[in-house]
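Quick one - first record:
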Amino acid sequence: MRYRRTDPRPHPLRRPARPLTVLLLAAALLASAGCVTGDKPQALDTTCAVVVDGSGSGSANKGFDAKAKLNASIVPFMKDQHCGSLAYAPITASSKASPCHISDVDLDPPSESTDDVEAIRQNARVKAVAGAHAMLTCAHDTNGGSDVLGGIARAAEALPSEGGRTALLVVSDFEQFDPEFALTGKSIATPEARRKSIDKLIASRGVPPLSGMDVYPVGYGMSRQAKPSAFEPFDAFWTELMVRRGKARVHDDYRR
């Protein structure tokens, strides 16, 4: 809705107010220089990790395309969740024993008051993305299999259990298939079957330390989504394992 201007025209000798577009442009230029105000940008205080699925089901030709899902989600995840650091974990046949290792990245490096903090953070995010790709490549090159629970546990154990928010991005279809356990239709068909399967899965591995953690799956159950009869027991299985037993908060923000 438009309103007619009723205020008097400015006096000929009085300098008119600066157009809004000029003010916005000035603000944008100052922001790009990192000096909108004299205050340092807010600290990035979430400790984050990313888990990448290197199994065959994550390949572009055979599955949900883990690389494409990673590319689409990792930068929004780091920005949205205010990640101050990023750790890595692979999903392989035996994820916790996998030799794949990438050093954590500091996403909020120390800076001086005159530094362009956003540029520094952007460079750190570029390094973090490269690290995620390196971890995915290593996981792909390792022996086949899909120990999803082990990958989640390895990442969760790398994050502090106290002292602040933690967030976990899991790029996987969550099809658990390792030398000791296979997630089949029969193994999760009924509540009783799911309970027995979960008990078997965690008997020697334990429940990952997910309590209070925010978990963001990407590619979750993609091969089953077209059939409710296949997806619903699958979803019930992982909900029981991660939410009810693991006490995680699971979100759909990047699931697509």
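second record:
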Amino acid sequence: MLSAAEAAIDDAAEDEAQRERNRAELYAPPRAAGPGGRRMRPPPAARLDPSGAQALMAQLAAEDAQLAGRRTG
């Protein structure tokens, strides 16, 4: 499927220089890439303290019960 897209881009190019620029852009590493073209790691996730974790678990249990059609008291 990529080769079909590349062929369509090549057909739309006005000259060989445009085709080369299109290929360079198509196969370039992502803009968010770090040194050497490697993708950078996302920032670490936020941590919860024990009370925050318990509150989250209670919220998830309530949503689960609601989705299951049960009432929570």
